[in-house]
ABC transporter domain-containing protein (Sinomonas humi), 254 residues
Amino acid sequence: MTTTSESTQPRSALHDAVTARGLRKTYGRGETAVEALRGIDLAFPAGEFTAIMGPSGSGKSTLMHCLAGLDTADAGTITVGGTELTGLADKALTELRRDRVGFVFQAFNLVPTLTARANITLPVTLAGGKVDEEWFGQLAATLGLQDRLDHKPHELSGGQQQRVAVARALLTRPAVVFADEPTGNLDSRSGSEVLGMLRRSSREMGQSIIMVTHDPVAASYADRVVLLADGRLAGSITDPTVETVLAALAKVEG
């Protein structure tokens, strides 16, 4: 099943931010073995906001973890920002995740003793780098955080904490940002704010985003939805709406 519609978003991407070829991943052995990924071939164009969806156990979280270098595939190749992950030594893989990949998680993952500013700049600080203050200021303004930078996480709302996490993910201008259920702990209003900001970062800043979600509303903010079922690709939707996502999921789950 593949559903497409005419896209109204201009595309300036000339290459893929992330590619996967022949990706396979199995957990366990023998009779208890579970094939989480069964030969996935996918390309994620630079500057595109892609949502990955599917029933529980479809392989969507495993796919994201492999693409992000957080887990190792049993077979196949993964390329992030022009660098192939296959065979990278641990140090090189750690550096790639630090420099070329951004992460936004459901649980925010902020350091409670640090201010919002320190949390945002933490990856650069740990790497011994220098913060691009102009870019930092632009991110803080775009995400509406200018007057919250001196506040610690417990002094921020859930939506504000997630915006801090988004700013942290974008600060190093990564090749791709992976978002794992980024609105799972937010109310609908805060979730809409965060999703709108992710979409703006893609459309206005050219950021590549790959988001795993179970929420059709969240998926409707993406440029494209990729559907998985039983570790295999089960279709895609261009310019998704809540209605087209629900219809596609019903077919996959049926």
